[in-house]
Amino acid sequence: MDKHASTPTSTPLTALVASAVQLHELYSAYVHAGFTPAQAMDLIKCLISTHRK
Description:
By secondary structure, the protein is mainly alpha-helical. The protein has helices at residues 15-32, 37-52. It is built from two helices and no strands.
């Protein structure tokens, strides 16, 4: 077995890290669906600003 292989960590995800992972997945899905990276980021920014109000 490779001693440099990734091993699971026992540190739980914080709410902030979980949110960041979800936003990254959403961004990637938008780009994969055909939006440009800038458009995908604009959509994410819109979602964040709408959610905060």
